[in-house]
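[worker-b] picked up task from shared queue
[worker-b] task type: protein-ligand structure
[worker-b] ligand name resolved to zinc ion; SMILES cross-checked against name lookup, match
[worker-b] sequence length check passed
[worker-b] input payload:
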Amino acid sequence: MKLDSRHIPQRTCIACRQSRDKKDLVRLVHTKDGIVEVDSSAKKSGRGAYLCPKRDCWELGLKGSRLDYTLRTKLSHDNRQALVSYADKLPGRD
Ligand SMILES: [Zn+2]
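[worker-b] inference finished, payload out:
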C-alpha cells in the first residue's frame, strides 16, 4: 500500500465550522463508559467531535447542546465542567 503524502485528513470544528487539518484540532470522544473526554492520542474508539485548540471555540461548543448533539449523548454537569476546565488552559484569542 502506498501512502499519499498529499492527502491530509480534514475535520470540521463543531463550533466555528472551519475545516482544518485533523492534527490541528482537538478530538473529543464519547467513550463506551458514557463519558466525553479529550482524546489526545486521537485514536480512541467511539464517536468523535473536533474543536479548535482555542477557548472561543470551546466556549461555543460547550454552550448549549452542540456537543451533546454531535456526540448523540447528554453531557453530565461534571463532565461538562471537566471540559470547561480543559478549555480554561487554552489560548483565548488568536
Ligand atoms: Zn473552531
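[worker-b] attaching auto-annotations
[worker-b] The mean pLDDT is 91.
[worker-b] releasing lock
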